[in-house]
Each structure stands twice: as C-alpha cells, then as structure tokens.
Design goal:
Radius of gyration of chain A: 21 Å
Radius of gyration of chain B: 22 Å
Number of domains of chain B: 1
Oligomer: heterodimer
Shape of chain A: elongated
Order of helices and strands of chain B: EEEEEHEHEHEHEEEEHEHHEEH
Structural class of chain A: alpha/beta
Bound molecules: flavin-adenine dinucleotide
Order of helices and strands of chain A: EHEHEHEHEEEEEEEEHEHEHEHEH
Amino acid sequence: MANDVWVYIEHKEGAISPMSFELLGIGKELAAGFGSNLCAFVIGAGVDDLAKEAGAYGAAKVYAVEGDVFKDFRGEAYAKAAAFLLDKYKPEVALFRATTMGTDVAAAAAAQLGFGLCTDTIGLAIDGGKVKMARAAFGGNFSVSVVNEKAAPQIATVRPKAYAMPEKGAGTAEVVKESFALADADVATKVVEFLASASAVNLVEADIIVSGGRGLGNEAGFAMLQQLADMLGGAVGASRAAVDSEWIPYEHQVGQTGKTVKPKIYIACGISGAIQHLAGMRTSDCIVAINKDPDAPIFKAATFGIVGDYKEVVPKMIEKFKGKLGR
Amino acid sequence: MKIAVCLKQVPDTEAEVKWDIPKGTLSRDGMDSITNPFDEFALEEALLTKENYDGEIIAISMGPEGAKDVLRNALALTVDETALCCDDAFAGSDTYATAYVLASAIKKAGDVDVVFCGKQSTDGNTGVVGAELAAILGFSQLTQVGKVRSIDAGAKKIVVERAVEGGIEVVEAKLPAVVSVIKGINEPRLPNLMGIRKASKIDIPQWSAGDLGVDTGKVGAAGASTKVVEIAVPPPRGAGEILKGELEEVANMITDKLIDLKVIK
Ligand SMILES: Cc1cc2nc3c(=O)[nH]c(=O)nc-3n(C[C@H](O)[C@H](O)[C@H](O)COP(=O)(O)OP(=O)(O)OC[C@H]3O[C@@H](n4cnc5c(N)ncnc54)[C@H](O)[C@@H]3O)c2cc1C
Ligand SMILES: Cc1cc2nc3c(=O)[nH]c(=O)nc-3n(C[C@H](O)[C@H](O)[C@H](O)COP(=O)(O)OP(=O)(O)OC[C@H]3O[C@@H](n4cnc5c(N)ncnc54)[C@H](O)[C@@H]3O)c2cc1C
C-alpha cells in the first residue's frame, strides 16, 4: 500500500540479534498513524528465520530478497536490492538503523532512486500527511527537522536506541519473496576477511558506557574504568583528548568526530564537556559526571554530578556496586 | 593514476555558529571557516597515494566563492588541479544534489580511478555523500575506511580495511572506487611557507551548472527533495543534581540511583 511503513531488518550473515527488530516499535506507531501496514524488508542469503522473527516483533508483511550474492554484507549489492524493492512498492517511509551497515544501504539506495535522506534521526512524527524527521546538526547545537517532500519513500536512518525495543509477541507475518537477480561479477566489492576486534567495542549498542577524558592522566586510568564497565556489563568510551594522548584507540572516541551514542547510562570521568564531546552523548538517558572542577561544563549536561577526583570516586563506586550487586 | 579528493568548507565549530532561523540557513557572516576535519584525512590519503603509486590529484569542492580557501590550502599541499563547483543554483542543495554535482565534476575531470572523501562533515553531519557518490557514479562503495592496504591501478584493484561494528572488514574492490576515510587513517601534514606562497598565485577554476551539464531542476533549494523545515536549539538537559557529602555517602547515593534505573543486569 502506498502509505505503508517499511523497516529494514539488518543482520550480519543471517545471525539474529534482537536489535535487528528495534525499529519495528516506532514503525508500528507510524503505521497506526497512517492507518497502514507495518512491513519489514530483508536482504540476505537465507532469511527465513529473520522473516519469521520480524512477524513476532510486529511486522504484518515481510518482503525478502534472497541470493548467494547477498551472503556477505556488501553495501552496493544490498542497496541495489533495497532500491528495487522500494521503487516497486513505493511505501511512505523506509527506516534503517543508523549503523555502518544501515547507512551504507540507505544512502546508496536513496541515491539510486534520486533522493536525499535524513540520517541519524532521533525523532519521527507524522505532520501534514508526511513523516517529519528530526536530527541533530552542528555537533548537537541545533536540532533540525527535515521533510523529504518529493521522495517516495522518504528514507531515514534512525539512531540506535532512539526508540524502545518492541515487545516480542506471537504474531506471524506474510512473507513475500521477491526475485532480484544480481550476478556476483556485477558486484565490484568482495569481503576478504573479518578481523573481530579484540576488545569488541560496540559503543553504539551499549546500554552503559563508562567514558574517560584527559583528566584520567594516563592509560592506567582506563584500566580502572574498564573494571567498572565490566562490572556493569558496559563498554568504555573516551574523549578525543584521551584518544589523542594515545591512552586508548580511536574506536572508543565519542563525539563529533567519533561515535554518536545514546546509552541508558553514560558515566563521564575527567571529561570537561566540550561541545564536540557533548555532540556524541548528550541524548544519553542518564549522564553521570565525575570531575574535580565544580565549574566544568559537563555538569550542565549531567543528570547526576560528583565533584571529586575520579581516582577516589571510581574505586569507591566499584566497591559499592560489588556489595550491592553481589558481584 | 588519477585521484580526486572532495573537500568541504565548514564553519569552525569552535567559533559560534549563527543561524538565520526564519530562513533555515546558515549565516556565514563573520564566521571563520575551515576545511572539514575529516577531509584533511582524505586529502592526506590522496597525497600519500600519489607519492606511493604515482598519479595526479584534483581537489574538488562545491560551495560559494569563499570555499576557494580550502582548495588553496590543498594547492599549498601540492595537489595538481582544483575545481570549485560554484553556481547560485547549487545553494541549498541536499545530500543527493551535492553528490550529483560532485559526481558531475568527477566525470568532467575524466578517468578518475579513486575518489577520497571524508566520513562526515561537521556541519550538515549526514555522513552519506561518499556512498551516494559511489551509487551515482557506479564506482565501488568503500565507506568507513581506516586503512588503504594497496592500490593496483594496472589491475584496477584496491584493498582497504573498513572499521565496522565489532571489528575490521578487509574488502577488495574494483577501481574506480569512492573511499570515505575515518580519523586515524593517517597524520595530515601542514603546508609550508613556500607551498602557501605558490598556491596564492594559482587561479582556481570555477565550474557552473552549465559547465558541468547539471540539470538545475535537481539541485539547490528548489530542486532538492529534502527540506529543512525547522531549526531549533534543543532544550537544555534539565539542571542536574550535584551529589554532595563525604565520598562514602556520595558513592552510596550514586550507586543506589543507578541501580534504581534497572538498567544494570
Ligand atoms: C573539529 C573538532 C572535532 C572534535 N571532535 C571531538 C570528539 O569527537 N570527541 C571529543 O571528545 N572531543 C572532540 N573535540 C575536542 C574537544 O573540543 C575537546 O578538546 C575535548 O573533548 C576535551 O577532552 P577532555 O574533556 O577529555 O579534556 P579537557 O577539556 O582537558 O578536560 C579534562 C577534564 O578533566 C578534569 N579532571 C582533571 N583531573 C581530574 C581527576 N583526577 N578527576 C576528575 N576530573 C579530573 C578537569 O577538571 C577537566 O574538566 C573536537 C574538537 C574539534 C575542534
Ligand atoms: C543543519 C543541516 C541539516 C541538514 N540535513 C540534511 C538531511 O537530513 N538530509 C539531506 O539530504 N541534506 C541535509 N542537509 C544538506 C546537506 O548537509 C548538504 O547537502 C551538504 O552539502 C552535504 O551533506 P553533508 O555536509 O552532510 O556531507 P557528508 O555526507 O557528511 O560529507 C561526507 C563527505 O562528502 C564530501 N562532501 C560533502 N559535501 C561536500 C561539498 N559541498 N564539497 C566537497 N565535498 C563535499 C566531503 O568529503 C565530506 O567529508 C542539511 C544541511 C544542514 C546545514
């Protein structure tokens, strides 16, 4: 149907992660607003399980393109299949997760269709029969709302964790398999190998992030933060100053030139709160700032502030958590 | 090998950004402008590629006349050619329109083997122009690149490392390719005085919509499908609570509060 809401189901080689279905929650709300159907679409080498699971998370219909050529994720190949589906059915809106994979597919598919798109969206609302998409620009100093007037569909990538996970139910979806032929020889890229990161940082997906800045003073400070993060099941982040000091690799950097994160808890230790750092974490649900300078700007963004030396505060927190959580 | 690099001029984020709220545009008056930080890595990668594999570089920017500054900076670092895509019709372009104009410039430059872009701009911030360029040009799409392992112009092949969630993906691709680079791929060099002096005397060509054969119905505020309909200053986060007391007490309070959120599993 013309005003259906489509959600792209992201996966890595068919592996099912609940996060793949994250956007079916907001998708359902939008579909209810339009009085239309919530549909999922998935591209891969074998997608039956994913399609079934999408039904359980609320999709009424699942459109699937399958083929060996889609075994490894390749943005170009996936985007061609996505553009084919979106052009054929022209839903009202198509949502992708704002991950490296989701962004690759969404951007290239939009370009093939000849439209712009809204990236890293943090708000979606129906306004005058169109979906209005809100995003941050300028390092989070401004929020802008964008409408893609001429596009069918409007395409948006949505910041992970911007919307709550939908409940899993007993629903089933009608699966529509579409054939889209693409020869391997026509895909210009080939994945040679995947080197899993030793520290397996996945900041974007983490519910809890313990982050450190220049105030840590040295690499050993990060070992302390890692201890707290491990205890809470979280990940370690960093400011640019800490990364530039080579205390921790760049993949941990949060901010305008690093990752944008939206965890449920963000604990900033020895971070002053420069706008470029805030740009990457200001939409976190709960921000805890630990800084020895009572005038540090980070306190203006913090839900809870502790004025003190992290070298005293963090070990004390570890001790307390140990007792209270029985770890 | 022919190398293209896309450089965007952006306002210095350390300076205060001024917005013309009713018009929904940036007011660039009195604001310092710089080369988009990620594009410095793209430029350095282009220079390294030229040094390691031989070739020539064209640096391309779309923007108002003032954007010549970023191209002049590139000239000081010894790029061979520059082109500023500049036309009133381009003002207010969305990402697709921008990628379309840049793609037209790359085609006009002719026989480009590899295009380097930054991962993201610090103003529009969308991070999609590289992927869009690849889709429009039909070039290999290589985003999030943290390392170029090798380029073989003869065999038309490039091998890169992409930083993706959970690790590094090694990808081999056919040339031509669009490579969007992330921070850390290299250490951008600074121009020297002689380079700056030389660059100041070079004329920077301007390419209009007509020169590029761009369909003006598809670009600028009028042609773009994406419209910014609202600009607002996000509401400040509610004033936080400073936990006061002895260390023991404060640590008790914060751990209780965090446990109460029921996020810790
Ligand atoms: C274009 C551009 C892009 C940028 N991108 C990013 C980005 O992506 N991410 C980013 O983080 N930054 C970025 N920056 C840099 C940013 O402007 C700041 O310089 C940086 O965030 C500062 O890092 P910091 O807070 O760790 O260090 P500082 O600003 O030096 O702050 C250190 C803080 O630690 C406190 N402190 C010191 N000792 C202790 C102690 N023992 N216990 C507790 N507190 C202590 C101090 O009071 C101080 O507040 C960017 C800048 C530019 C120009
Ligand atoms: C506040 C704001 C919000 C916006 N929101 C949207 C939106 O949601 N959707 C949309 O389609 N458009 C949007 N736009 C318009 C968009 O920012 C512009 O079209 C811009 O020219 C390209 O996007 P970008 O700056 O985000 O580039 P990015 O995709 O972030 O840039 C990636 C790389 O592409 C290259 N590049 C990008 N622009 C140029 C250029 N002009 N010259 C040379 N190289 C370049 C650079 O190498 C850069 O590092 C917005 C603009 C503003 C100011």
